[in-house]
Every structure is written in structure tokens, then in C-alpha cells.
């Protein structure tokens, strides 16, 4: 057996970074990828532009980590967003920072990120084997001995890094292989659910709003009386419910309530206005349309698609003249504007989810090395772990940070 041999399973963000880090010390590294090319999921992240990280400060970064943020302290301190930015630039991938501190390739092409890794891996002599599926990871007497490939052949190794991704976007090869491998080696798998995904709502009127985008609104998600999420931004109505940046982030908290059948979304359509200011605004609009019918007096307040739903939900007769509307009716319209509610039926599935929430329990992983506490020589990185974050480049940074740490420490441990 080649004692210096490190096998990395998975050629996505975490796997490519792990292979690059492991090869820094000129160790023999083999990267196994079951797809026909590396970084397949990267090509569809950020709508094909690849939001590689977020350039925010450390505290802000951890505010955006949903599951097990403390576990990430070591990995992020060793390879944080600033190091990732420097790393990519040094390897020929120019970057730019946009709204919300989101970092993208200057070219807007995800392929530039993968190309940077391909050049580096080739330069460092990493053996990349494409179309190579792993059937199982082997261990004996509590330590790694190698991997079994899909064709039945055995590849010996004393160090194996599992970076196979989660269950989201299965067409990119994320089919949960890593969970199965980890479970076979004794690891606990926390329930895996779709995250950063659209939500289905109960109300039928959402179909009337299909395609409507609401900008500069505040969204609150509640489970009963418990607030699970609140933020300001943009959302989108679909034929089945709601989507867009606000909703995707809110979806990551869907399972954090006690009763998933009692999840409510509340939208403040005019968050910049207090109730008193909004009342004055409605009165002004009504005064300008005093002799018109109610249904024809709302164009200045709401997008055209939203008007019929607002009328229906307000309970005000659409044919009623504006000057006949009572104070109580105006108050109902105001309250509806500040608290436009809808009940969540379910979240959409893995085929639409950006990431997977859940995975290998981090309690069984050493946060300083990413090595398994159960099997020596076994390391994990990326989405396969029970780690996830909100949108904005944070999930990819989790992959880069844990991938680097796993690769770096696996190479160092072999020198002891």
C-alpha cells in the first residue's frame, strides 16, 4: 500500500479544494469524480455565475450559518473568505464583489472557477479520475484501508476524504452516496431535507399572482406564535406558492418550528411606512380618486396583479365609490397591507432545492481536522456534513473551508 496516498471522493467545490490542499505537501492524491467533468454543480450555482463566497466580516458570516455554526469556527479561521478570494485570484480566476458582498467571477462564468482548480490540480500532479463511481469505503480495525470502485476494483488508501455533496440537484450527481458510505462506517445521519427551496402555500389566490415579483418588502415566517425568520428583500409568486431570495432563506427555518402544519408567512408590503404614514398615504390616494370605484383607485398603492387579491381579501365591495368607504374598511386595507398573510402547505423537493439541510452528524467529526472520531483516516467536507447557510455565497464558503481543512490535515497526519 502507498502510505502517502490520499483519495478524495467527489469533484465538487469541497472535493476540488480538498485535493488541492492535500497536494500542497506534494503528497500523492487521487480525486475520484463519478461525472464526466469536475465541478458540475458549480455550473448552475448563482444562475450559472457561481457566487463563490461572501466578502462580509467574520461575525456577519456566522450570522448566516443556519446549522451548527460553532463547528465551523476552526475551518473558517484557517481558510476564510479572504483566503478563498486570494486563492482564486492567484490561480487565474479574477473576481468582483456585488450587492450584499456577494463575490462572483469577473467573467460571470462558473467555468472560470473550475478551470482554476483544474490548472492547479494538474500542476500539483493530482490524479483526476472522471467517470469513477465509488461503491464503498473500506476500513479495518477502526482505520481506513481503501475504497471499492463501481467496477469492483479496489483502490488502497490510508486517508479518504468524502466530499460527495448532498441530495439537491440530483442531475449533477448529488445522490446521497456520502451518507450511505458514512452510515456503513458507523456514522449517524441527521434527517436530510430540502433547504433554500420554494414554498407551497394553501391559498388558491396565489395562482392569480404567478410571476409577480415584490421588491423591498419584509417577510416574517412564524410557527404558531414563534417567529422563525424575518428579513427584508425580494420575493416571487409562483403557480404553487412563493419563491425568490427571501423565501429561499426562510425555507431553511421551516423545520425549526414545533408544528410544520402551522407555518405562516406574513409580508409587510410597505415596510418603509409606519401604520400612521400608510394611513395618510391611503387617504391621499383616496382623495385623488374620491368619485371612482374602489377597484379603480388602488393603482398607486399596489402592483396591477396584486389589486384584485387585495380587494378580495379586504372584503370591500369593488364597485363601491371611494368616498363611501368607511374608516373601518380603510383600516382593514391598511392592516392587510402591513400584514399580508399566507399559510405554508409544504416546501418543494430536492429537485428544486439549492442545498441539503441535515447530513453526517458533526458531533462525530473533529472540527479541528474534519477527521472522523470513529474511523481513523476518514475525513468529510462540504454539503455531506450537517452544515448549511443562507443564500449569498455562504454555503460555498462552507465547502471551501471544510475542504481545505480536510485536505490539509489529512496530508499532515500522514507525516506523523
Describe the overall structure.
- With 416 residues, the protein is of the alpha+beta class.
- It has two domains: 5-194 and 350-413, FAD/NAD(P)-binding domain; 198-348, Orthogonal Bundle (Helicase, Ruva Protein, domain 3), CATH 1.10.8.
- It has eleven helices and 21 strands.
- It has helices spanning 13-22, 58-63, 73-78, 81-90, 111-123, 177-184, 245-251, 275-288, 304-314, 327-338, 394-413; strands at residues 5-9, 28-32, 53-54, 65-67, 95-98, 102-105, 127-129, 134-140, 143-149, 154-156, 159-162, 189-195, 199-201, 213-223, 226-237, 241-243, 263-268, 340-347, 355-360, 378-380, 388-389.
- A six-stranded antiparallel beta barrel has the order 13-16-15-14-17-18. The chain has a five-stranded parallel sheet with strand order 7-2-1-11-20, covered by helices on one side.
- A hairpin with a 4-residue loop joins β9 (143-149) and β10 (154-156).
- The chain is elongated.
- The model has no long low-confidence stretch (mean pLDDT 94).
Descriptors:
6-stranded antiparallel β-barrel, elongated, 28% helix, 5-stranded parallel sheet, single chain, Helicase, Ruva Protein, domain 3, FAD/NAD(P)-binding domain
Write the layout of secondary structure elements.
Blueprint: E1 5-9, H1 13-22, E2 28-32, E3 53-54, H2 58-63, E4 65-67, H3 73-78, H4 81-90, E5 95-98, E6 102-105, H5 111-123, E7 127-129, E8 134-140, E9 143-149, E10 154-156, E11 159-162, H6 177-184, E12 189-195, E13 199-201, E14 213-223, E15 226-237, E16 241-243, H7 245-251, E17 263-268, H8 275-288, H9 304-314, H10 327-338, E18 340-347, E19 355-360, E20 378-380, E21 388-389, H11 394-413
Parallel strand pairs: 1-2, 1-11, 2-7, 11-20
Antiparallel strand pairs: 3-6, 4-21, 5-6, 8-9, 9-10, 12-19, 13-16, 13-18, 14-15, 14-17, 15-16, 17-18
Helix pairs in contact: 1-5, 1-11, 8-10, 9-10
